[in-house]
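Quick log. Single chain, no ligands specified.
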Amino acid sequence: MNLVNADEERSEAYIVNDVWMGIKSIHFKTEDIAKNLIFKSKFDRCGTIYCGDEFKQIIEILKLEGLLFLDDPSILLHGK
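-> predicted structure:
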């Protein structure tokens, strides 16, 4: 599994009383996504698997099931 650095200028951690609770938002540079079909990031402590549109399209073309694709992983934290 490849590690990709988050774009820290556009990403934000969720911190309460100086304790890391998760992420508010995470963004990656387009060129990093293009180089990696699936990847993790140390920004969220490798807690989520990320992918670009190319990987999602492969899954859809092959009609594979069982994966949930979210546009915003902070949904898991905030329940929105």
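The chain has a mean pLDDT of 89.
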